[in-house]
Amino acid sequence: MVRVEMNGIPGRSIRDSDGWDRPVVTPRCMGWKPVLLFNFRFGLRFLSDHMDWHIIIAAVIKIVVFVFLVTLPMVAMSVWAERRVSAAIQDRVGPNRVGPFGLLQAVADGIKFLLKEDFTPAHVNKFYFWLAPALTMVPALLTCAVIPFGSRLFGEKMVIADLDVGPLFVFAIASLSVYGIVLAGWSSNSKYSFLGGVRSTSQMISYEISLGLSIVPLIMIYGELNLGRIVQEQALNGWTLLPLWGEGLSLQGWVLVIPMFISFVIFMTSMFAETNRLPFDLPECETELVAGYHTEYSSMKFALFFLGEYAAMIIGSGLAVTLFLGGWSLPFGWLAPESVDAVVPWWHGLIHIGVYFAKVIALIIFFIVIRWTLPRFRYDQLMRLGWVFFFEIALANVVITAILLAFFK
Known about the structure:
By secondary structure, the protein is mainly α. Helices cover 62% and strands 5% of the residues.
């Protein structure tokens, strides 16, 4: 296609089957608005003819239900659970005034954050100061897309995007959250915030390496990057950490539990560091940095950092459940479908969704108990654990798994 001019009117030419360039001219009398309207109508007709609206509607419903009606309320309830569990560990009462058992405390906290003054200090870089909280919260929610939270319900797969690169997508998107923390520390123009941002950069990058290497043995065993098919394999032949049925009862299944347990320990510890939870909350430790990277934040901007941490914890728990604890599947293959595409009764689908969220809640409680049990590491201990121990152990675990697979082949 080349540009031509016909009677002083610029236009384009299209080469036809005979090799001639035929000009395509837009008359001056038409103007750009009718042409734009025509192109818009043509685009709508093209979309209606070539797009499966059923898939789009189903995806929108799953996004609204899973992200906004389940995950975000779980974030609020995780805050309540943290306060109740910490109170029980420290022999206190905890929140019990707002609603039954204090369950509406999260609603009261949300209203409090909304009504507080949204103060922005004069010395900050305002654009990045406002951008940083969103960059912390959004990646945590985007990673929900590839995690299967059930088998099937009314014929629909219970996953928003059934990608064949599920773990890679999760790690790629989750790693973007470091930008939010770094920008928060840098844009605040405060030494405490800046030190928190620098600490977070080195900590999250260091433990992302161990986190990625920890799942390589699992991928080698399953030969699959689709999280739905990994869960289906566990449903039929035993969970990764509990191979007690199907092909998992073989000698190979029991021997491979050893490198899988090592991978699980590295994965969970690295997830603590990635979510900045105790004993790895060095970017925001109050004894040294006041509040770290979010020292200068208040109101809903602070709440976004706070909620982003819990959202990342929930997604990390969901990924750990999917990879190591069978995802939505019940033990011993109960109610397990024959394949990924098999027909699943609706009540089986509801049970699978309930099983998945029960496992996630159990891991969230584990995260909370660890936070209120172990003391904070020193920064040199944190980096030494990541680079001197976990990195080498994860690499050795990959080699051991490869040797075992070659032996049993």
